[in-house]
Write a structure and sequence with these properties.
The chain has 467 residues and is of the alpha/beta class. It is 37% helix and 9% strand. The chain contains 13 helices and eleven strands. A seven-stranded mixed β-sheet has the order 3-6-1-9-10-2-11, sandwiched between helices. It has a two-stranded antiparallel sheet with strand order 4-5. Helix 1 (5-27) runs antiparallel to helix 8 and helix 10 packs parallel to helix 12. The protein is globular and about 65 Å long. The termini are far apart.
Length: 467
């Protein structure tokens, strides 16, 4: 005797409601539970997430080593293994429509890039710089896009180094929530970890929230005892095994294995002094182990790389766990004081040693490429495809060269079919027909926002970029 359709629907609804209730009761304080809850939502018809990541490195590039003869140059060679996921822009300017001159040209570039609007003509009190006049487009997308909404954090701002001289504050942010409202990145990797994963991983008394300091202390103690992060969620795992449908238990076992592999990888990174080991292939949400022994704004190139690697691993976990769908990462602000072979990057950028500057930009390629590779190797739990397929990563700088040029910007756009990035593995010469504003216009439909133009000036979507 066949069940009536209404009875089947009721039983199905009851099953999913039971799962929701279980997740809230059994694992509301764990990353595991959060991941499973997002899986329940997808099973009930929620669309698979898409993501937007902006990665910025400072002080531009050297054109002859970036795209010589429209080919991948030595600076870009570290991206060789992921070149099939990229569109490299040629002759693309940052559009700046300002009726005044002065202030920091680095902030002029980053503000125009991210907001599409000129800076305020009014100076910031006690210095000669100028603030933005509009919110950044990543924040507009995070606020208005239905595809980018619904994650635990509407947006996140990460950063490997945030120091700089007094007066260059506007160039140390990529995101702005409104006029003169910068959202500065977090350079303290422990605090960043505590903010993102603390409330998901640390058990606290009912009605209390863990303080960042408490989270870090607890995680450090746990790490010293060499216990797995799973000790925090083992009871939840056992409950899940007992109550979650049998067809889902393989996912739970994969999740447990993946967490342990992630900890081993991060242990190896710490023991090797920061050299990034191969990131294990992952197909589920895995909160990385708490970072240990990382400096904050130290400004030496080796330490800079270690912090960047750790923050990229946190960022990958954020995307896999669907904790945020809009993230910016700054290697450093425009007037970066990170030192390479004893000299500050910003000072070097104004000199004639192009070989050294080319070497520095290649350094940033070398330490960004593993993050892109991790998106290729990681399998999106929602789509069972590589995470890069549903992620747009725009790799930018605030100026084209140390001479503060804003033409022929050294920009790359990574992504896959899921975000509609077409004809990848190529150089796209936009001539004088488009500016950075038109990249925003082009990618907006990916996130269910239709714009005929964005910023001032604007020319419209870039034909053949997204489809």
């Amino acid at each position: 005797m066949h069940e009536r359709g209404s009875d089947v629907n009721k039983r199905s609804a009851t099953k999913w409601n039971d799962r929701r209730t279980f997740l809230k009761m059994g694992g509301g304080a764990s990353a595991l539970a959060y991941w499973l809850f997002r899986g329940v939502q997808r099973a009930e018809g929620a669309p698979a997430p898409k993501r937007l990541v902006i990665v910025s490195r400072p002080n531009g590039s050297i054109a002859k080593d970036w795209l010589p003869n429209n080919q991948r140059g030595s600076i870009l060679e570290p991206f060789a293994d992921v070149w099939q996921y990229v569109v490299a822009f040629k002759n693309m300017p940052i559009a700046v429509n300002e009726s005044f001159k002065g202030g920091d040209p680095h902030s002029m570039g980053s503000i125009a890039l991210m907001t599409g609007q000129p800076r305020s003509p009014e100076r910031i009190p006690n210095n000669d710089n100028h603030w933005n006049t509009a919110e950044s487009f990543d924040q507009k997308l995070a606020r208005e896009s239905p595809i980018l909404s619904g994650a635990r954090f509407r947006s996140l701002q990460l950063g490997a180094y945030t120091k700089g001289p007094l007066g260059d504050e506007p160039s140390r942010a990529l995101s702005f929530s409104g006029p003169a409202k910068p959202l500065y990145p977090e350079p303290d990797t422990k605090q960043l970890y505590a903010r993102i994963f603390g409330s998901l991983m640390i058990p606290v008394k009912e009605g209390e929230a863990p303080s960042p300091a408490g989270v870090v202390t607890a995680m450090e103690k746990l790490r010293r005892r060499r216990e797995s992060v799973l000790s925090f969620v083992m009871k939840d795992l056992n409950r899940v095994r007992a109550q979650f449908p049998s067809e889902a238990r393989a996912d739970l076992e994969a999740h447990e294995t993946s967490i342990r592999e992630m900890e081993k990888a991060l242990d190896a990174m710490e023991e090797s002094g920061g050299s990034a080991p191969p990131i294990p292939v992952s197909s589920d949400c895995s909160a990385p182990a708490a970072p240990n022994g990382l400096p904050v704004n130290e400004g030496l190139q080796d330490a800079h790389a270690r912090v960047g690697a750790a923050q990229f691993e946190i960022l990958r976990a954020v995307l896999m766990c669907d904790l945020s769908r809009v993230v910016t990462f700054m290697w450093a602000g425009g007037a970066s004081e990170v030192r390479f072979e004893g000299s500050g990057h910003h000072a070097l950028s104004h000199g004639s040693n192009t070989a050294m500057l080319s070497k520095i930009d290649r350094y940033y390629s070398q330490h960004t490429a593993p993050f892109i590779q991790s998106l290729v190797r990681s399998v999106d739990p929602a789509t069972k495809k590589p995470l890069i397929d549903s992620t747009l990563v725009w790799y930018v700088s605030e100026i084209a060269t140390g001479g503060h040029s804003l033409t022929d910007m050294p920009f790359l756009l990574f992504g896959g079919d899921g975000v509609g990035l077409k004809n990848r593995g190529r150089v796209l010469d936009v001539g004088a027909k488009h500016s950075s504003n038109d990249v925003w216009t082009s990618i907006a439909p990916v996130f269910d926002m239709t714009l005929t133009s964005f910023g001032n000036p604007a020319f419209g979507p870039i034909a053949g970029l997204i489809g």
